[in-house]
Amino acid sequence: MITLKSNREIQSMHEAGKLLAACHREVAKLIKPGISTSAIDRFVETYLKKHGAVPEQIGYNGYQYATCASVNDEICHGYPRKEPLANGDIVTIDFVVNLNGSLADSAWTYAVGDVSEEAKGLMDVTLECLYKGIEQAQIGNRIGDIGHAIQTYAEARGYGVVREFTGHGIGPRIHEEPQIPHFGSPGKGLRLKEGMVITIEPMINVGVWESKMDANGWTARTADGKLSAQYEHTIAITKDGPLILTMQ
Ligand code: MF3
Ligand code: CO
């Protein structure tokens, strides 16, 4: 079922999103060689609780952590772990905030110390893909317009677009209908309506788009072992265009 949100509900989700954005800014300061993703995970959990919010991912379909922390060839749903991050790694930190029952979801890829030109290029293109997708999140456009904008931008530059994981409607649960693929055909798929709240979260690979699943059943990594990056915002479809809820 697709739930359309009132202006008031969108405002409450925006409050959750602002807190999430503030927490990401603190995470950005922590990321350096030597810190572990489990230390980052603990920081996020403590930060959210201190601000009266709940880390919504804990217990979601059995997931056990406040954050997903996906390093280098990990595409998404990496488990936070004790080993320290190394200079040159890239790490995607993804988490969902529940503030007074309203949700917001955002992921960001961070460079650890000095990263390669390959990693920088991937991060730039992936962030641009997110904004190309957001531009299409307009009343009357179709879901395929979002995916098409992302796919053509990434593939024209030789990158692979992950297909197994998509954006999604959000609120009251993390994953609601509709699915928002990051590939597609213009003019195809469901029409976007005022009051829909969706995530756009392209996962872009240096190499092939295919992924493989770790034995833990959660963590996806690139089939060829090359780098993957991801940026995600929660977006409300409004009369005035796309409203990014996970931003100050
Ligand atoms: N934040 C993730 C997303 O963007 C949701 C992860 S599901 C979890 O869709 F169980 F890992 F939390
Ligand atoms: Co997310």
UniProtKB/TrEMBL annotation:
One of its GO terms (biological process) is proteolysis. Binds 2 divalent metal cations per subunit. Has a high-affinity and a low affinity metal-binding site. The true nature of the physiological cofactor is under debate. The enzyme is active with cobalt, zinc, manganese or divalent iron ions. Most likely, methionine aminopeptidases function as mononuclear Fe(2+)-metalloproteases under physiological conditions, and the catalytically relevant metal-binding site has been assigned to the histidine-containing high-affinity site. One of its GO terms (molecular function) is initiator methionyl aminopeptidase activity. The keyword tRNA processing does not apply. A divalent metal cation 2 binds at D105, H168, E201, E232. Keywords: Aminopeptidase, Hydrolase, Metal-binding, Protease. InterPro entries: Creatinase/aminopeptidase-like, Pept_M24, Pept_M24_MAP, Pept_M24A_MAP1. Substrate binds at H77, H175. It comes from the Bacteria. Its EC number is 3.4.11.18. It catalyses: Release of N-terminal amino acids, preferentially methionine, from peptides and arylamides. Residues 12-239 form the Peptidase M24 domain. PANTHER family: METHIONINE AMINOPEPTIDASE. Removes the N-terminal methionine from nascent proteins. The N-terminal methionine is often cleaved when the second residue in the primary sequence is small and uncharged (Met-Ala-, Cys, Gly, Pro, Ser, Thr, or Val). Requires deformylation of the N(alpha)-formylated initiator methionine before it can be hydrolyzed. Monomer. This is Methionine aminopeptidase. It comes from Paenibacillus lactis 154. The gene is map.
